[in-house]
Amino acid sequence: KETPVASVELPEKLLDYIQDAHSMEHNVLNMLDSMIANTKDPQMLELLKQHRAETEQHEQRLAQRLDELGKSRSAMGEATAAVGSWFKSMGDAMRNDKPGKNLRDGYVTDHVEIAASPLLDRIAPRAGDARTADIARENLRSEQQMARRLDDLWDRAIDLTLQQAGIEQDNQGTQTGSYGQRADAAERGSTWTGNSADADMGIG
Questions:
Q1: pLDDT at 184 exceeding the cut of 90
Q2: How many Å apart are CA 162 and CA 45, to the nearest integer?
Q3: Using DSSP, how many helices (H) and how many strands (E) does the chain show?
């Protein structure tokens, strides 16, 4: 009996997804290096460094899995990532609005990682690869935790951006509480009533 075409192609498709995820993590590492080099605020800098350390772990897990499978990393993907990060680095160095846009870019890179992990988690079991599925879920957990931490820095980033630009804020425009907490309240149709301690969010 002939082997169905799908069962032959599925392992190769899984490999393509692993290589793509690895290249993406490699790209994110380079982009985070650029953001870190252009971030001065201690709280934001610390979080970006933690983001990088976690991303490096994700990249190493995927690289090790490729080695275990006896497959090479995607040279084309890494080359494209390197070029993209080079242009990104130039943009970071030249732009003035670094706090807000660096946080935006950090938030985007984390969600790119989040989007890649469920793809591996879904396709790996179909190819009989439980180990890759475990790696995808492990990476996803830390990525989602980082996303929540980044989400609480929006007000900090805007305050720093306006301060650097010399833009004064009136009292009517002042908002307290984290972005995520206010967004949750808005979805419920209620008003955020957090206190000043909550507004500090542990970031000064």
A1: no
A2: 18
A3: 8, 0
Q: How many CB atoms lie within 10 A of CB 188?
A: 8
The encoded tokens of residue 168 equal: 């004064």
Q: Output the pLDDT for position 85.
A: 57
Secondary structure in 3-state letters for the chain: CCCCHHHHHHHHHHHHHHHHHHHHHHHHHHHHHHHHHCCCCHHHHHHHHHHHHHHHHHHHHHHHHHHHCCCCCCHHHHHHHHHHHHHHHHHHHHCCCHHHHHHHHHHHHHHHHHHHHHHHHHHHHHCCCHHHHHHHHHHHHHHHHHHHHHHCCHHHHHHHHHHHHCCCCCHHHCCCCCHHHHHHHHHCCCCCCCCHHHHHCCCC
Q: Which of 7-16, 36-45, 123-132 has the lowest mean pLDDT?
A: 7-16
| CA distance linking residue 80 with residue 143, whole number of Å | 23
| Token reading at 160 | 């720093």
Select from 71, 80, 66 the least CA-distant residue to 24.
80
pTM: 0.71
- Give residue 201's pLDDT band: very low, low, confident or very high (50, 70, 90): very low
Q: Is the pLDDT of residue 110 over 80?
A: yes
Among candidates 119, 120, 143, which has minimal Cα distance to 133? 120
User: SS3 of 110, please?
Assistant: helix
CB-based contacts of 109, cutoff 8 Å, min separation 6? 28, 31, 32, 51, 55
